[in-house]
Amino acid sequence: MAAIVNGGVSGDLNPGFAGAQAPVATAIALVRTTSLVTGLGDALSAQVSYGWDQVAGSARVVLPLPSGANGDPLVVSMGAGNNVQRFSGIRREDDTTLAPHSVTAVGKGPLYALEEYENSVNTSDDGKAGFPCFALTGASLVGAGSGTLQQIVVAVLNLVGVSFSLANLANPPHVYGLVGPEQFTWGTGVTAAAFLHTVLEASAGYRLFDSSDGNVYLEQMTAIPTASADFTFTLGQDIFGDSSALNSSIGQKQAVLVLGYDPDGSGPSTSGVVGSGSSVFRVNSQLIETNAFAAELAAYWLPVMSRRQQTVRLSTPRDDLLGPGQTIFVEATTGLSVSQKLWLKSVVTEIAANGAFTQHLVCIAGAL
Amino acid sequence: MSTFTIGATTAAFTALEPFSDKGLALEEWTLDIEVDDPTTWGALFSLRSWLVTQRPIPGGQNVYVDIGGGAGQGWLIVDNLDPHFAVLTALTRNLVEAGAQRSKATATFLITG
To answer: pLDDT means per 10 residues in chain B (113 residues)?
Structure first.
């Protein structure tokens, strides 16, 4: 006959443990109910990804059965209390598994239009087939004889049809096109993403990306962020065990040489070698039109390249709305040998098939 | 008598031995129980949670318990033991007595506070 548990005795099951009336475990449970809403009906799991190393944000939603179709809007809201929208885009792929049957709906964010838009204009009269970026007269992308990085980005976004807020686009003062405007001609058949990539390569570390809040950003990524941290992650509080830190001197250079516009073969605009050392990091772009701008870019690149690279891959249960370009402070001296600000390069937010909510961050900066 | 309560729903049961107290990051109690009638069994069944994960944070005390479905966290009182917040993560009915109302079952509770 079964006995009734502890029927006549008051107290905890483990009175020998310090504090007889307290729960035995010293662990503190943080109980959360996770939520996943996709607009596609029941979803088994979902993953949203953003980063300045990808053209546009993307989402993967695993469904138990087919629902909806390619071309449909795809909106993903999820969290573990902070249940907010984390993706809005267009469903572009279905990835079907036979058994256990599932359909993974893959969505791309609005910035993906840059990848699909190809320039079909060929009005250039400067010998290069394509669409002039700058022109004093006649049609051009910017509509002027020269322009800033922000003006170029705005013109492309407008042309492609991507919504943005001007306040989220940095506006560095350098004016392009004053010396060699023909170098900026947007080649026929070249995608908007490729064109902008070429221009951004000739900038002081500016990146164009979209984020989980639905906005498009143009931001400069310096060697080490200086602004106040948007979020702090602390060992023992909100960093999972599969996190890692890489402190690398591979690729580290103590000197930078920026080479630019060379219209007649007489020699490019140049910064000269900035810094010291036998190993030189080189930047080469015909869009760098003057020695002064080359020197400006060298001044940007030297502190970036002369430091060891600190990369922190961090998993966290926190459900804050994270996005690329945010400043993250990682306080994990004992476990990861990291205690510094870093840039959030990319973030994957997911609710896994086991119901757990996790965000996976990749943070980078020059090591201190 | 023992009870497990979530919101307005309370299921009463009798806790029996054997009683397993498994200590992972959080305690997990597994105990045999008797439930008096089908209505109470139904109430207890409705208080289950599933897709429950517990993930400890290294170097600290925090354990994140994510509940992907079901009733969620409740209030567990087992006889005269100290009450605890708990999540009913498994419920296995071992015996339904023929012609009777009573059920014997095994219940697993994740102790969360």
So the answer is: 95 87 84 92 96 94 95 94 94 79 92 92
Identify the H or E element spanning A199.
helix A192-201
The DSSP secondary-structure symbol of A161 reads: T
- Cβ-Cβ contacts under 8 Å, A13 against chain B: 19, 21, 81
- Domain total for chain B? 1
On whether the CB atoms of residues A316 and B55 are closer than 8 A, the answer is no
A56-65, A240-249, A257-266, A349-358 — which is least confidently predicted? A257-266
Nearest to residue A23, comparing CAs of B110, B53, B27?
B27
Cα B78 from Cα A7, distance rounded (Å): 9
How would you classify the pairing of strands A28-33 and A244-248?
unpaired
DSSP, collapsed to helix, strand or coil, labels residue A44 as coil
The answer to whether residue A153 scores a pLDDT higher than 90 is yes
Looking from the CA of B11 toward its CB, the CA atoms found within 13 Å total 25
> Under an 8 A CB cutoff, do A4 and B52 touch?
no
> For residues A307 and A197, is the Cβ–Cβ distance under 8 A?
no
pTM: 0.90
* B7 interface with A at CB cutoff 8 Å: no
Does the pLDDT of residue A18 top 90, yes or no? no
**pLDDT tens string A159-202:** 999 999 999 999 999 999 999 999 999 999 999 999 999 999 99
Alpha carbons A225 and A231: distance in angstroms, whole number: 13
Among A25, A32, A334, the residue with its CB nearest the CB of B111 is A25
B91: nearest Cα among B103, B75, B79 = B103
Ordered DSSP codes for A53-79: TSSS-EEEEEESS--S-TTSEEEEEEE
| % of chain B surpassing 70 pLDDT | 98
Mean pLDDT across chain A, nearest whole number?
A: 92
Residue A9 scores a pLDDT above 60: no
Give the Cα separation of A206 and A193 in Å (integer): 14
pLDDT exceeds 50 at position A1: no
Q: What are the helix (H) ranges across A203-339?
A: 291-305, 333-336
The single residue listed with the structure tokens 């002039």 is: A132
Chain B positions in Cβ-Cβ contact with residue A30 (cut-off 8 Å): 62-65
Which of chain A's residues have a Cβ under 8 Å away from the Cβ of B85?
Answer: 29, 31
Domain residues for B7?
2-111
Q: How many CB atoms lie within 10 A of CB A17?
A: 13
- pLDDT band at residue A125 under the 50/70/90 scheme: low
Q: How far apart are the first and last CA of chain B?
A: 21
Among the partner-chain residues B55, B67, B81, the one whose CB lies closest to the CB of A240 is B55
